[in-house]
Amino acid sequence: MSRNPRILVTGATGRLGRLLVPRLLARGAHVRALTREAGRAASLAADGAEVVVGDLGDGASLRHAFHGASHLFLLSPISPELAAEQIAAIAAAKAAGVQRIVKLSGSHWTIEPPGRSLSGDAHAHIEAALRASGIAHQVLRPNAWLQVTLARLAGELAAGDVLHAPPAFPKVAGIDARDIADVAAHALLGPEPSATDSPWVLTGARAVDHHEIARIASALSGRRIVAEPLSREALAQRAAQAESPYVAQVHAQFAALIGTGEAATVTDTVERVLGRPARTIEAFVAEALAA
Ligand SMILES: NC(=O)c1ccc[n+]([C@@H]2O[C@H](COP(=O)([O-])OP(=O)(O)OC[C@H]3O[C@@H](n4cnc5c(N)ncnc54)[C@H](OP(=O)(O)O)[C@@H]3O)[C@@H](O)[C@H]2O)c1
């Protein structure tokens, strides 16, 4: 293993990438941030990352981006091209002599059992390509991210005392994306994964529904905050905001699986990997109240 890892981070300008890059820089790694447009990575460059322009759908740009990289963090958004593009990235990594890959995969319940989620099946396909590559790797399967499922929480708490919930009020063991970034940094810079390492299934420390989130917010604020189900119209409006019909279909599959309690399973993987507990829902709600 190279002493001075040169880590190519895909998805660097996105939700998780922006959390991961500073963590890797803080630990002394050389970080190369991949973006399709350099301007989007300006703040990462200011933090000390090398910015490389490339597109996972363009093999020639990948050869340039991977040149000299020893590690790869592999992440890209949900799209019909997810599997093809990430498998091309694994091939480019192999050609460039990359020694370790950490792949941000789908939530465990989207992947197993197969056939229930378009994006989960795509991630399973990529995981298989990774195993076949012979490159040391670690797969991360994070549960739903608090920053995504509760993206509206701060706004709703600022606007009033009502939180809007999915109709079935499912319990979700949501994970703070900062914990995923901490685990990813460890997987990239810690001990080399062994060929037998199974995917790390990452969740928050407990599963809560929106009634519990409202109780936590009430206790922290001294207000009487309640949770109400989203109306059918609001649900339809949110579905219409998806960036494509494909993504809308994927989201509908997630909602159906989460509605049956699939995302409520809790693991202790974050604590086992990091040696400290996962960030709590109470801390997340407190931040939302203070925002
Ligand atoms: N949200 C959840 O609850 C959850 C749970 C489990 C797993 N996941 C997984 O997390 C991943 C999404 O992570 P995220 O939300 O951090 O991603 P994101 O913010 O949606 O996007 C990450 C970045 O990908 C880059 N990108 C898009 N297309 C590209 C291409 N063709 N070539 C190169 N770069 C490209 C974009 O950067 P530029 O525009 O700068 O090029 C974008 O900023 C998905 O694979 C999803 O399955 C999410």
In summary, what is this structure?
This protein is an alpha/beta fold. The chain has 14 helices and 9 strands.
Bound molecules: NADP nicotinamide-adenine-dinucleotide phosphate
Structural class: alpha/beta
**Which sequence of strands runs across the widest sheet?**
3-2-1-4-5-6-8
Straight-line distance between termini: 42 Å
- The multimeric state of the shown protein is single chain
- Output mean pLDDT: 96
Gyration radius from CA atoms, angstroms: 19 Å
Descriptive account of the structure:
Strand 2 (30-35), helix 2 and strand 3 form a beta-alpha-beta unit. The chain has helices at 17-26, 42-47, 59-66, 82-96, 108-111, 118-133, 146-149, 153-159, 177-189, 210-221, 232-240, 245-259, 269-274, 281-290, and strands at residues 6-9, 30-35, 50-53, 71-74, 100-104, 136-142, 162-165, 200-202, 226-229. It is an alpha/beta fold and 291 residues long. It is built from 14 helices and 9 strands. Helix 4 runs parallel beside helix 6 (118-133) and helix 10 (210-221) crosses helix 14. Strands 3-2-1-4-5-6-8 form a 7-stranded parallel sheet, with helices on both faces. The model has no long low-confidence stretch (mean pLDDT 96). Bound molecules: NADP nicotinamide-adenine-dinucleotide phosphate. Residues 10-11, 13-17, 34-37, 40, 55-57, 75-78, 85, 104, 106-107, 119, 142, 144-145, 148 line the site of NADP nicotinamide-adenine-dinucleotide phosphate. NADP nicotinamide-adenine-dinucleotide phosphate (NAP) is lined by residues 10-11, 13-17, 34-37, 40, 55-57, 75-78, 85, 104, 106-107, 119, 142, 144-145, 148.
